[in-house]
Design brief:
Elements (H helix, E strand, L loop, with lengths): L7 E5 L4 H12 L3 E8 L6 H12 L4 E6 L32 H16 L3 E3 L15 H13 L2 H4 L5 E3 L7 H10 L24 H13 L9
Parallel strand pairs: 1-2, 1-4, 2-3, 4-5
């Protein structure tokens, strides 16, 4: 249902399947969307160009890219000289990027305060995910509390809300909802090691989850593979 008055929202947009769906959902709910992508030194940098295209095609009012080089910290297969795994392992995988969602939400919060937006959207998921601790509902709830304590707007009594519309959905459910909202998933890049043309490897953890999602949804996978 569309909102009675237009409210602004900052939507974290990686260029992947999940965040594109979140943008479509936020737009469908009547928000004026301002997308934010983070260039953190990730090896799958073609997703940044995908985020720009998606922001435009899905009707965002503005799009911004913020650069923070997490390669200086490393510790992840996405930001360090560590091979991206092609087999499922136990525990938190090496594709986990330390403090990534904390950093991204902090940047989105700052952008929201400047934009006079009180809504933040992020595509975290606690069902079909890779075991990342910063995708859990407890983390989102804790960060939402932080928003009120760490901002001028919060100190003045305004409340920020973090929207996580995918958090309890399976990948197939996400794909079905996004398809119904007009998301062109051929424009999205989910692969952890996509090449410069945006072609997916087909074997990393993210590619496997994406492939299975399209299969379970009964929708043809439009991903371009190497």
């Amino acid at each position: 249902m569309a909102k009675e008055s237009i409210e602004r929202a900052v939507v974290l947009l990686s260029g992947g399947l999940d965040s594109a769906t979140v943008l479509a959902m936020a737009r469908d709910q009547g928000f004026e969307c301002h997308t934010l992508s983070v260039d953190y030194g990730q090896r799958h940098r073609s997703e940044l160009e995908a985020s720009r295209r998606l922001s435009e095609s899905l009707g965002a009012r503005s799009h911004r890219v913020v650069s923070v080089d997490l390669r200086a910290i490393g510790g992840s297969a996405l930001t360090d000289d560590i091979d991206v795994p092609t087999e499922m392992g136990e525990g938190i995988p090496v594709t986990y990027v330390p403090a990534r969602n904390t950093l991204m939400l902090a940047l989105a919060l700052g952008h929201a305060e400047v934009q006079a937006a009180r809504h933040l959207f992020i595509g975290v998921n606690a069902v079909d995910y890779s075991g990342y601790p910063d995708c859990r509902p407890q983390f989102i709830a804790a960060f939402e509390d932080l928003c009120s304590l760490a901002t001028k707007a919060g100190d003045e009594g305004q409340r920020f809300e973090i929207h996580t519309p995918l958090i309890h959905l399976s990948k197939a459910e996400i794909i079905r909802q996004g398809t119904a909202l007009g998301v062109n998933y051929a424009d999205t890049i989910s692969c952890y090691q996509a090449d410069e043309q945006g072609r997916a490897c087909g074997v990393c953890d993210s590619c496997r989850l994406r492939k299975a999602g399209f299969e379970d949804a009964g929708i043809k996978d439009p991903t371009r593979y190497v």
